[in-house]
Amino acid sequence: MFPPAVWLFQQSLASRKDDKAEYSVLHVQHVTQNWSVSLEKQLGHVRNDGHYVIATVLDPRFKMKWISGGATEEATVKSLLAYSIDKEQASLLMVLV
Questions:
Q1: 79 FRET partner, CA 20 to 30 A, in 32, 41, 66, 70?
Q2: pLDDT tens for residues 55-64?
Q3: What is the pLDDT of residues 38-86, one digit of tens each?
Q4: Among 9, 68, 73, 80, which Cα is nearest to 40's?
Q5: Which one-letter DSSP state was computed for residue 12?
Q6: Contacts of the segment 49-55: beta carbons below 8 A, 24+ positions apart
Q7: Looking at residue 97, what is its pLDDT?
């Protein structure tokens, strides 16, 4: 659940940053920008951590819905999942032999 939550928060901040009518105070824009930078700095690694990504993709509530990078990112996630499955199968076979 963690990667989609981070992604949704980033998307929310990005959409609000573009909405000039909502922000009449420059300070609010500055706070939004700082939140976005801080979020990327502190939690940006989550989208690149295979364990988080695989766990989220296998969760039936999220599947691949939260991936926003298009076909390239989706293909990367699918290959990561296939690699992990192959690796686990090989480990299981070694135990059974």
A1: 41
A2: 888 888 888 8
A3: 878 887 787 778 888 888 888 888 888 777 777 777 888 888 888 888 8
A4: 9
A5: H
A6: 50/80, 50/84, 52/2, 52/3, 53/3, 53/77, 53/80, 54/80, 54/81, 54/84
A7: 61
Residue type, 1: M
Q: In degrees, to the nearest 5, what angle opens at C-alpha 91 toward C-alphas 87 and 92?
A: 115
For the chain, what are the domain ranges? 2-96
Which residues lie below 8 Å from residue 62, measured CB to CB, with a gap of 6+?
1, 4, 56
CA dihedral for 46, 17, 23, 5, sign (positive or negative): negative
